[in-house]
């Protein structure tokens, strides 16, 4: 699959966050999105995930057959989509049923994340890092070509960061795409980098005038 | 499609049984209101049995509001809703499954428990049966109408009060036909079936319109 983003602009609560953003991602490529706090990294991922409407610009996918963008992607972000009262296995089984295209079983996915022992524990009992690993295990229970990761290594220990780097490398070798918003290196080799900077100064002035 | 529907309903039922959330709470609330009325009106059994069906229906409408605000808000907060929108199944199906599960844990117990609570307001056996049947047919309409409000207020903190204000006026038709169906079962010029059929129609209309509207509200709220 190919992901094409053209001239994307983001506006939240009336304020322009970024504009003129564009990139093309081919199969097997990865993109790290960097920028200061509040630069719009999470907003960019939310737009790619279809949860936020772009102010301008377009997001397209090619070579995916009939599937739309939202049917091609996995999201792992700050809101992990796990229910504390359900066990890890129930959470993963639910994700598998909902997302379709199942691959690994919840048991295998948890084993790959080194959490096989926690399979039948309610997710609410797990630590922040373990919880994040359960959310990452979701990447493995269904096959989806585009992974959107928002600070995927937050709360992860060094060993788990290595596991995640291995998973991402394997995913890319199979033709998958990774877009990760991060502040630190997360072990993506030959990743392209997109740095979201401040909006253009002229625009800021125009904006200030509009507000005045 | 069916697998997604089944997975959603199963998950919400398991969650409701483990967290012990709104289902039991709304049943207790229902009992509270029904129990309060005789204290307010005094021990006039004739009066109570005459207005009993109306009390039960009014209590049921109010009890439906309990927990309604959490249908979508809980999933919006922890990101589960993002997971559901990424599903190949349309959002309407997700809404339908969630509302169905909510009705199974709140509306259905209300309808089943209403004959028991009818004792508190001195209902005759016929009136108990009629009230239970009308609640069984009518509560889906209440839940589906409520779901629209729940979807609109999903991203608002403490949206429960706004939800009640938005949703209660829309529940009036169901209330009218629910109570009038019970009244006609206890004698009157209109046969029992006529208002009951209209009540069923209201539920079906609410199921269609409510599902579409709630899904649209969830999409629009981003």
Distance between the termini of chain A: 45 Å
In the predicted model, the low-confidence regions of chain A spanning at least 5 consecutive residues are none
Give the % helix of chain B. over 70%
In helices, the fraction of residues of chain A equals 25-40%
Average pLDDT taken over every residue of chain B: 90
Strand content of chain A: 15-25%
Q: Specify the biggest β-sheet of chain A.
A: 5 strands, parallel
Biggest interface and residues each: A-B, 28 and 23 residues
Shape descriptor of chain A: globular
**Total DSSP E strands of chain B:** 0
Classify the oligomer: heterodimer
Give the rounded overall mean pLDDT of chain A.
Answer: 86
Strand order of the largest sheet of chain A: 5-6-7-3-8
Query: Outline of chain B, from the CA principal axes?
Result: elongated
What is the gyration radius of chain B calculated from CA atoms? 18 Å
Tally of alpha and pi helices of chain A: 6
Instruction: Give the CATH superfamily of chain A.
Output: P-loop containing nucleotide triphosphate hydrolases
Account of the protein in words:
The complex is a heterodimer of chains A (212) and B (222). Chain A has 6 helices and 8 strands, in the order E-E-E-H-E-E-H-H-H-E-H-E-E-H. With 212 residues, chain A is α/β, with parallel strands linked by helices. Chain A has a 5-stranded parallel beta sheet, sandwiched between helices. Chain A is globular, with a radius of gyration of 18 Å. Chain B has one domain. Helix content of chain B is 81%, strand content 0%. Chain B has 11 helices and no strands. The model of chain B has no long low-confidence stretch (mean pLDDT 90). The interface between A and B is medium-sized, with 28 and 23 residues.
Q: Would you kindly provide a brief summary of this structure?
A:
With 212 residues, chain A is an alpha/beta fold. In chain A, 32% of the residues lie in helices and 25% in strands. Chain A has a five-stranded parallel beta sheet, sandwiched between helices. A three-stranded antiparallel beta sheet of chain A has the order 2-1-4, with helices on one face.
């Amino acid at each position: 699959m190919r992901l094409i983003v053209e001239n994307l602009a983001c506006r939240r609560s009336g304020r322009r966050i970024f504009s003129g953003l564009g990139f093309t991602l081919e199969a097997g490529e990865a993109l790290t999105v960097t920028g200061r706090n509040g630069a719009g990294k999470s907003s960019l991922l939310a737009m790619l995930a279809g949860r936020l409407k772009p102010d301008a610009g377009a997001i397209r996918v090619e070579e995916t057959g009939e599937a739309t963008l939202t049917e091609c992607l996995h999201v792992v972000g700050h809101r992990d989509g796990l229910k504390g009262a359900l066990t890890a296995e129930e959470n993963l089984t639910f994700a598998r049923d909902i997302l379709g295209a199942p691959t690994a079983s919840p048991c295998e996915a948890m084993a790959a994340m080194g959490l096989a022992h926690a399979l039948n524990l309610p997710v609410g009992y797990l630590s922040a890092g373990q919880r994040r690993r359960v959310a990452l295990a979701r990447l493995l229970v269904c096959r989806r070509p585009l992974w959107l990761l928002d600070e995927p290594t937050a709360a992860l220990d060094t060993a788990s960061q290595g596991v995640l780097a291995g998973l991402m490398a394997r995913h890319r070798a199979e033709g998958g795409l990774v877009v990760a918003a991060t502040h630190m290196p997360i072990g993506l080799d030959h990743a392209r980098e997109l740095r979201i900077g401040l909006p253009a100064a002229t625009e800021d002035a125009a904006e200030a005038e509009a507000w005045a | 499609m069916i697998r997604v529907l089944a997975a959603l309903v199963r998950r919400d039922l398991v969650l409701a049984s483990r967290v012990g959330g709104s289902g039991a709470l709304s049943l207790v609330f229902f009992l509270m209101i029904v129990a309060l009325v005789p204290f307010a009106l005094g021990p006039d059994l004739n009066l109570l049995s005459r207005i009993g069906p109306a009390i039960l229906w009014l209590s049921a409408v109010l009890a439906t509001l309990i927990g309604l605000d959490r249908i979508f808000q809980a999933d919006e907060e922890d990101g589960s809703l993002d997971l559901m929108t990424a599903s190949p199944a349309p959002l309407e199906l997700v809404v339908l499954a969630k509302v169905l599960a909510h009705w199974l844990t709140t509306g259905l117990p209300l309808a089943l428990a209403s004959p028991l609570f009818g004792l508190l307001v001195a209902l005759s056996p016929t009136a108990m049966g009629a009230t239970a049947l009308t609640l069984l047919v009518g509560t889906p309409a209440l839940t589906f109408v409520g779901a629209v409000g729940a979807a609109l207020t999903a991203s608002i903190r403490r949206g429960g009060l706004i939800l009640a204000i938005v949703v209660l006026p829309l529940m009036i038709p169901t209330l009218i036909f629910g109570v009038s169906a019970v009244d006609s079962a206890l004698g009157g010029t209109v046969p029992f079936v006529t208002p009951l059929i209209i009540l069923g129609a209201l539920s079906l209309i609410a199921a269609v319109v409510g599902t579409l509207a709630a899904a649209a509200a969830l999409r629009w709220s981003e």
